[in-house]
Amino acid sequence: MRVAFAGTPEFAQVALARLHGTGFEVPLVLTQPDRPAGRGMKLQASPVKQFAAAHGIPVVQPRSLRLDGKHPDEAQAARAALEACRADVMVVAAYGLILPAWVLELPRLGCLNIHASLLPRWRGAAPIHRAIEAGDRHTGITIMQMDAGLDTGDMLMVERLPIEGADTTATLHDRLAALGGRLIVEALEAAACGGLRPTPQPADGVTYAHKIEKSEAAIDWRQPAGAIARRVRAFDPFPGASFDCGGEPVKLWQAEERPELGGEPGTVLAAPPGRLVVACGEGALELHMLQRPGGKRIPAAAFLQARPGVRAGLVLAPGAVRAD
Predict the structure, then answer these.
(1) Annotation-wise, does 119 bind a ligand?
(2) CATH code, domain with 226
(3) Would you call 70 helix, strand, or coil by DSSP?
(4) Which residue in 78, 80, 81, 156 sits closest to 115, CA to CA?
(5) Is 117 annotated as contributing to ligand binding?
(6) What is the pLDDT of residues 88-129, one digit of tens each?
(7) pTM of the prediction?
């Protein structure tokens, strides 16, 4: 079976590597254009492109696939490459571009998407983040037959995965990426012998995982401690939850809910030496790992040594300033 592949970040690279390693023929890869990254803001290839280049797989990087859009020449070139590669199916994983009808209809078996949620819950751009933020107990991978809607296609395979109490988006991402790589191989093997049975998504339970905005990183101490703790985990590694401490933006990477404590939201509570506890709208939050601008992630004890002015009674602003 000839499998074209469309994807961009590490999540997609894991699936591409699994397909390639399993022996599927991958004649073409589509990925986003190189983007500036790092301190020097040099152009950097996506993880998918890096894998494809290392394994001699042809790559195309259109800015759009719309033949009537802003970049019709790039879209037409991508269409010519897809037609020439004669793929039986296209696998799509976190590609980042909308697939117009001509793409969905071109492969014999259509386009299969690896989606990191239990559809129809968390359709959209950030299903891993939003599942943690909402306090979901489970998530998973859905292999979906793509249609013209936003993650609305028929489900082909579904497998659940528990969300552990300490999971961050980074840790859950890695487990879901591995699961997605395994499941897409199983789906393609089933498709090769006609064994896939499409199931329409339920009409009930639809939620949307809207893109994470940097403005969401600011901690509001007026929220319940549990909600803040979930957001800290959901925003690790991006964009990182942050708060203002005496005019300095500080990122919070690890925290623990302390429901038995409380006080005026944003107030630093008395705590044993080396521990930092802040009152919230409900309960309190013990801050474990923090990061000052330009520094590394450090335990609360080291943070307090560097900021001796942070002591019981200090009130942190309820509407925080985000650390860049």
Answers:
(1) yes
(2) 3.10.25.10
(3) coil
(4) 156
(5) yes
(6) 999 999 999 999 999 999 999 999 999 999 999 999 999 999
(7) 0.93
